[in-house]
Write a structure and sequence with these properties.
8% strand; seven-stranded mixed sheet; two-stranded antiparallel ribbon; alpha/beta
Amino acid sequence: MKQTYDFGLVGLGVMGRNFILNVADHGFTAYGNDLDKEKVAALIAEGGNTESINASTEVTVFTAALSRPRKIMLLVPAGKVVDVVIESLLPHLDQGDLIIDGGNSFYTDTDRRERYLKDKGIHFFGAGVSGGAKGARLGPSIMPGGDREAYQHVRPIFEAVAAKFEGAPCVAYLGPKSAGNYVKMVHNGIEYGLMQLTSEIYDLLQKGGNFSNGALQQTYARWNQGRLQSFLVEITAAIFARKDALSDGHLVDAILDKAKQKGTGKWTSQNAMDLGIPVPSIDIAVSMRQISALKDERIQADAAYDRPKVSPMEATQLEKMAEEALYFSFIITYAQGLHQLADASKEYGYELDLATIAKIWRAGCIIRAGLLADIAEAFSEKPTLENLLLSPTFMEKVQGTVTSARELVAYGALNGIPLPGLSNSLTYFDAYTSARLPLNLIQAQRDFFGSHTYERLDREGIFHTEWE
């Protein structure tokens, strides 16, 4: 009898190869597919046993090798490639089979593909996978969304290969339609914000405290042992320790300061604006990558304008304030992203459980952090919590750190050290915690020039004034 395999995967790049090896490590047989013969051969060689792992360049051979219902995951670049792969698979599938898109597809594309395949009797899932190549091999955080009953077919595999936090798998069914891809999109938006904040604090310590790379490594490593424990802080410490093989210095100092992006941060920001949800810490992180790309113009502007001479701060005090400010701004960034998820859940019918999302982010993914345990607890205690800042637990955390954020934002402004992520986080906090904002004047202006009307504080109704 011809052997059938439990799981299929299309796209044998680094992520795909590592994921399928992870599947096999956990006792499931897996079959790969790629148009590149070298990638197919490399997987077979690394797998070591074709009864456990096999692969082919031929889609007919690939689909015939899979047990029913077929469970096929795509780890290919987002966009048209996903549609091309789906069309190549369709003639060889049966009703009830599952296609799982594990890439960073835009959520509306996932909705479109799900409707299209549903009419053909095929289940389609968008499943965000976070953790990079290492996570794919050793245990990622997985964020699937689609048909709840169909998910049960792939659930044992996903729970086996996912990262574990205190024994619990960092994967859960999140909701219908594109819920999985949407949660991964916002995850990446939060990631943009945290990376921007981490880099700003590095700049602040370097310029304001004259921290060497060795001192920076020790500082971030020490922070990673405390309340700032997180993947990003951990790898930042490791980065400062790496010497450059091509020079006598450290590698970080030789890297061009132009950050690239693949679009998920921008999508998060754009969709937040569509929903009317403020995420300024994420917005500015996207904008700073765009500003960084203007390297030639920045060099010209730097030469053309006088910059303040930095007045150094005492290193120990600066480090203490920087830790508090980074912790404060991390909380604010998570709060913004989770607020967006809560609103999107209502708008798009995702039925998201924010406590569950925080739990599956605790290990495996790029934004994993000790802070997520408290976030999960806050939303478990009150699932309808409007904003993380309204949780009593987080009120205490924020009140104990916001003063340092204020002082460092002021220090950065006076000394010409750009801290846009930190300042946007502080501004968000100050605006969100202000019972009254000056937007009454904006409403008056809108009514003045456009008869857009306004509401009043002292009575119900819609009003208009002839101002002239």
